Amino acid sequence: MAMTSLPGTNDINQLERIVNVLGVKGNADLNFVGNEHAHKYIKSLPHSLGIPFASIYPNANPLAINLLKKMLVFDPAKRIHATKVLQHPYMASFYDPLFYPIADDPIDLGFDDDVKEDTIRKMMWEEMLFYNREGEIASRA
User: What domain of life does the native source organism fall in (predicted)?
Assistant: First the structure.
């Protein structure tokens, strides 16, 4: 079974795909689901253990599968934190804590939390163009 993402045709289909892969227990605490309709719908689904990532990605490095299990958890509060992801053995060849130290304090991005998504996207695009002038030239062509 080859799968690289979980694209849904609509909100319900997307939710079904996620639950199908990650699984959901009948007595699962779903207080983190803010949408009342989604909350009720998920509660109505039958108990599911999900699909083991190793069967979805049979040729993947076992350490990658282990990291996926920790990152792709339905309840966001139970997911592995970014710091732990960087310290995971699978990331050892990609991350050097001496060269990229972990921040001691939260990072202030310099704008308020109420900035709209479109504004953030535009700001990110402008930042990328600042560091990649070739991209700016290509986008004008």
Answer: Eukaryota
Give Cα 124 to chain centroid, integer Å. 19
pTM: 0.64
Instruction: For Cα atoms 95, 99, 103, give the angle at the middle one, nearest 5 degrees.
Output: 85
Rounded Cα distance, 28 and 75, in Å: 9
CA-to-CA dists, residue 2 to 14, 30, 37, 54, 60, angstroms: 17, 29, 31, 11, 12
Q: Report the interhelical angle of 36-44 vs 11-22 (nearest 10°).
A: 50
pLDDT tens readout for residues 80-121: 998 899 899 999 888 888 888 877 887 777 766 778 888 888
Domains in the chain: boundaries: 1-51, 60-104, 108-141
